[in-house]
């Protein structure tokens, strides 16, 4: 299968997951959700253990994969925290700006030049973000202050930086270290489980009265199982697409999941200013695609 079909499939599965995650996060905490879904994903991954191949793994492969998993897990937890406390149409579109952060970091630290299309893409991302955050009767500078005043918007920015670094390490592991995609996926899923369990244990010292399955009904558990299946699907398709295609283009196409999630999710959750938010999201995603055109 061509890498771009895999990237599109990853975007669709990711959008489905985001919408269902928003529904579940209305009932349980972000950390408890990440732990429960990681347990289910690890259990589902057990059927693939027999296909794990470490024969090509070098001495640095596993340590890098562990480090990458920690970064990715922290990003996922940040996203879940923001998604729980913000509207889906305000939390997700900003994450589509990751191509801009990659291009800017390459310009600042690697001395790479920025083309006219890349600059235009960045302007579209900034414009879309401005439109997204601008509210009626607010000062025109308000959208810029939201990332200073709002804790959850700052968390999104942290997630954005972590996701950018994680994507670069994905490419390193799959191409330079030649780690097989299926092995990558299975090991990462188990590392995620360990990392999130440790997060939960440390958090338990502060919130001793919080139970892991507090607020988890049979319906919520069933939805989490579907989320786990979709998560395995979008992780594998993204990993395979990253192995086969240009990492920047894979990231850009994957960001279409944001558009899908906002168009469907914002309507599903009856969010205000629907059309404005869809237009802003399209502008941001268009900018992301333009950077890696």
As residue ranges, the low-confidence spans are none
Which class best fits the helix and strand makeup?
A: mainly alpha
Q: Choose one word for the global shape.
A: globular
Number of helices, counting only DSSP H or I runs of 4 residues or more = 13
Q: Report the strand count.
A: 0
The arrangement of helices and strands along the chain is: HHHHHHHHHHHHH
What do the pLDDT scores average to? 86
> Strand-residue fraction?
under 5%
How many angstroms separate the termini? 21 Å
Note the main sheet. Answer: none
Gyration radius (Cα, Å) is: 19 Å
Helix content percent band: over 70%
Task: Tell me about this structure.
It is globular, with a radius of gyration of 19 Å. It is mostly helical and 293 residues long.
Short structural description:
The chain has 293 residues and is mostly helical. It has 13 helices and no strands.
Protein topology:
Blueprint: H1 3-25, H2 30-45, H3 61-85, H4 88-91, H5 98-109, H6 116-133, H7 142-149, H8 151-176, H9 181-206, H10 218-244, H11 247-254, H12 256-268, H13 274-291
Helix pairs in contact: 1-10, 1-11, 1-12, 2-3, 2-9, 2-10, 3-8, 3-9, 5-8, 5-13, 6-7, 6-13, 7-8, 9-10, 10-11, 12-13
Descriptive tags:
0% strand; 293 residues; single chain; globular; 76% helix; mainly alpha
């Amino acid at each position: 299968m061509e890498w771009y079909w895999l990237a599109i499939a990853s975007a669709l599965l990711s959008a489905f997951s985001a919408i269902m995650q928003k529904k579940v996060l209305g009932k349980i905490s972000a950390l408890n959700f990440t732990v429960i879904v990681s347990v289910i994903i690890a259990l589902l991954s057990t059927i693939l253990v027999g296909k794990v191949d470490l024969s090509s793994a070098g001495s640095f492969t596993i340590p890098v994969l562990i480090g990458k998993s920690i970064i990715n897990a922290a990003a996922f937890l940040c996203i879940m925290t923001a998604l729980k406390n913000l509207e889906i149409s305000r939390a997700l579109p900003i994450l589509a700006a990751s191509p801009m952060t990659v291009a800017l970091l390459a310009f600042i630290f690697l001395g790479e030049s920025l083309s006219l299309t890349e600059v235009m893409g960045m302007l579209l991302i900034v414009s879309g973000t401005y439109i997204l955050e601008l509210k009626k009767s607010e000062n025109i500078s308000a959208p810029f202050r939201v990332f200073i005043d709002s804790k959850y918007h700052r968390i999104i920015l942290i997630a954005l930086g972590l996701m950018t670094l994680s994507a670069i390490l994905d490419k390193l592991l799959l191409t330079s270290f030649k780690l097989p995609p299926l092995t990558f996926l299975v090991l990462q899923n188990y590392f995620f489980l360990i990392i999130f369990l440790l997060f939960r244990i440390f958090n338990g010292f502060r919130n001793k009265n919080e139970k892991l399955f507090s607020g988890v009904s049979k319906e919520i558990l069933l939805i989490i199982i579907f989320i786990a299946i979709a998560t395995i699907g979008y992780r594998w398709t993204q990993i395979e697409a990253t192995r086969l295609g240009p990492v920047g283009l894979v990231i850009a196409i994957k960001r279409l999941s944001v558009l899908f999630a906002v168009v469907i999710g914002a309507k599903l959750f009856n969010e205000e200013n629907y059309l404005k938010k869809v237009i802003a999201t399209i502008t941001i995603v268009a900018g992301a695609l333009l950077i890696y055109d």
